[in-house]
Structure formats: C-alpha cells, structure tokens
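User: Fold this, then the next.

Assistant: Folding the first:
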Amino acid sequence: MNTLVEDNPARRRFEILVDDSLAGFAAYQLRGETIIFTHTEVSPGFRDMGIGGTLARGALDQVQARGGRVIARCPFIAAFIARHPEYADLTTG
C-alpha cells in the first residue's frame, strides 16, 4: 500500500492518496502562516487502516517544514497532537 499526503491549496485541504485513490482529507482555513484544521475525514473503504494517523502526520510534518503554526479545531487532529508531543510546538491558540 503506497500512501502520499499532499497539500491541495485550491481546496484548502491536505489529501491522502492510497495507491493513487483519494482516501481522505484534512480541511483547513488559513490565517497568515497559521493553518486552522477544521475537519478530517477518511473514506469508509479506508477506515481502520491507520490512514487518518498517516494523514495527520503527513500534514503536520509539512506545516512544520514550512515553519507554520497550527490551530487544531478538528477533534481528530487535536487528539493526534495530544498523543504525539513532538507536534505540540506547532500549536497556537
């Protein structure tokens, strides 16, 4: 299973592709350099496979690489950050 997490700025979301099929997304709003995660969704056929965690990690890694900040209004992203303290320094607000 090949996965790829990429930013889709036109749709304001990070998307995860599994073997070239869209498996889920993490929607966001922008406020300057801060990304406000609002909703994360994994398609039914890809649930219980760790896709959500892979998506969260990939999105947060990209934000971190850009030197951005995160506001986690999405409960899934907030819970992921709480379980992975290496991303705590990204959070604001």
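Now the next one, as you asked:
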Amino acid sequence: MGDVIKLRANDSLRSVVAGLGDPFRDKMATASYGFQYIDDYQLAAIYKSNWLGKKIVNIPAMDAVRKGRDWQAEQDQIELIEAEENRLGYWQKLLEVKVKARLWGGAALFIGTGEQDLMQPLNVERVGKGGIKYLTVLSRRDVTSGPIEQDVLSEFFGKPSYYEVTGTASMVRIHPSRLAVFIGEPHGDNLLNFGINQGWGDSIIESVYTATKNADATAANIASLVFEANVDVFRIPDFMANLSDPAYSQRLLDRFMLAATAKGINRALLLDKEEEYERKQVSFATLPEVMQTFLQIAAGAADIPVTRLLGQSPAGMSATGESDMNNYYDRVASIQTLEMTPALYRFDECLIRSAVGSRPPEIFYTWAPLKQMTEKELAEIGKLHAETAQILNTSGLFTAEELRTVVGNQLVEDGFYPGLDQAMDETGDDWEADLGGEGDDTSAEPPVGQPGAQQTEE
C-alpha cells in the first residue's frame, strides 16, 4: 500500500502565477475580520452630533410606527382600544423604545399592572378593564439582564431568565413576561457574546460605523478643499537664497501685505518686473460623484434607500425610485411582522382586555401599509369594485341583501365613505322591510335583472 496523500480543499480563489492567496505576495491574504466594539460614550456622541448616524437610527424606527395599526373589530371596540392607546401614550413610547433598541442594542416596554411581585409570570387572563396602569420605556443602559435560560423546555430558552432594574432606593427583578423586549442587531449566539451586551443585541451603528465614518471623512476633506479652491503662486528671484536674512523676511512680508492691500482696493496686483504670478485652481468636477458613492455605500450598509436617507429625488433617466422604496417598505413590513408583533404579543392581549374588559376572539389587527395610494388610484379601485358588484347583482348569483352587506363592508374597510357602517346599521331594518314588502308574500318574483329573477330564453 502506498502512502496516502491527504489534500485540504479550500474554496478560496488562488493563483500561483497571479499571486492570489499567497501570503507573501497578495496583501489581501493577510486581511481578516475582528470584533469592533463601540462604547456607549461613542454611541451617544454619534447619535448627538452625526446627522447620518442619527438618521440611520431614527428612520426605520419612525417608519415602522408612523402609520399605526388597523384594528378589525366593532366600531365601539376600536374606539375603546384607540382611547386606551392614547391614555398609555403607546405610540410615542413604542417609537422611543424602537429608537433606543437600535441605538443601544436593546430596550423594553415594561407593562405596569400594579402588581407587587414582579418575578411572577404575567397572567394575561387576569387583566381586566383598565388593568394596564402605565408603560415604562427601559433601554439596555437602564436594565441588566440575568443569566441566559438553558432549559430547552422553557418558553424563554436562549433569553435572559430575568431582568434587573436598579432605582434610587432598591433593585427590582422583573420576569421577562412583563416586558416587551426589542433587540437592535441580534447576535448569532448569545452564549458567544463574550459578556458584551449580554442578553441584548448590538447597536445598529456598529455595522455601519466604517461606512458612515468614511462618508463623513470624505465630506470633511471636500469641505477643506473649498478653502484652497484658489491658491496664489508667486515666483521671486533669489527667494531661497535671501530667506535666511531676517531683514529680507520682514521686507518680504511687508511687500505682499502691500500687494494684497492694493489688490483688494484697486483689484490690481503690483509686481516687480522680475516677479511672476500664477493662480492655481482646484477642480471639483469629480468630487460630487465621489461623495455620492460614499453616501450610497452608507445607505447600503444601513439598508435604507438613498432617496429616503437623504431626502433627495431619484437621479437618472426615467428613474422614479419606486422599486427601491417598495423594497424598503417590504423590509419595514418584515420588521413589523417578524420583530414587533411577537414582541408585543402579551402587551396586545393585555391591551384588548384593558380597553374592552374581555377578549373577544374576533378582534385582531394588521399593520397599516406605508405606501399610500393617490386619490386617483383609490377612485379607480372603487370604480372596479362597483363594476364588479354590478355584474354580480345582474348575474343573480347573490341576493341583494348579501351583496349589500359584502359591498358595504368592503367600502368601509377601504375607507371610501366615512360613517357608512353606522348608516348601514341605522337603515338596516328599513332595507329589509322594503326588500320583502310586508314580510308575508315571499313567493312574488322580483323584476327581471334583480337577484332571483327567472331569465327567459329568447
């Protein structure tokens, strides 16, 4: 048996001729990634003084909450829920907790129910009308997470088993079910977190730090070039040979101060016959493209379209930016569905009970879409719905009462006619009376073209 030669296969690109992958020839062969930790002081400084970092933190948080939620319930129930949200200051606090989660790596909404033993799990079923007393926003800096739960049978496996809040007089431990926890950028594994932000996530700024810093440095360098846009160059005979003489240096300064004064007053420069003057101008032709490239990199790192991040119009022929914004709206919708809805599940169950006094199973909500249609688009959709209803009515497949209910609900949900649901409720009895006459003769055939009419063959 011959010797077995073991080869290690790597999927990296290598070339002996070009030197790719050779640590002695390829400079990139020595490049590697490491942990980049930004302390809280630096995070606070970026958020306070850097416009780009602040917008990267605020914009997705604002867009995720600014359109609110559409509750599907009876009108009086919706009014009670929205009144309870206003009483608790829910939307302002939800925005605050999202901003702090993205900035610091984590934040939470504490659901205050007035109970004293906060280490007991929150029993949602026991929350009655007005059961939520208050909501408190706690950032990662306000809360210390406990040890990670290792019990695979626990609902909170892989998450902190409790949280600690230190006040002015005492320290309080809180069960995780009493908090709606929001994470900034999640870790790959909490156990490999090396104690940094234990139980929380990373700040969104950490992943975009290099890109935003490069964009800021480019803008700063371009700004400094503005002061040197025009540079005056003088050529003086025997300049270096006479510069060592202090008296010559003083005469030289006096000479050009006089020249600058004459230039400022008479807009003419006085020179000796042997002197030469030239003006050097810095070209800014390509600088806008360079600056735009760095801003695009920062926008890509933040996963925010340039048009939304900078508030500028789309550039290029036939460019509308619609596809970029649609992708961004899908991303925000993913944040709402995959992050915010699970985090708010217990709170929402408590909110319904605190507003209504019970938990009707038919109550639910959807996040309002960020993309809003124009009045023309809404009118076109309404016209299509009306034509569809007319066709169904003529076909005789459905009764007039069935179509009235379905079409009315559709118009209410689309928001075409405010107050239509109340008007339908008030006129419902009159409609049924008109439809069936006195209610005794139900065998009368309706006119041709109305639901239930017998069509004759020609």
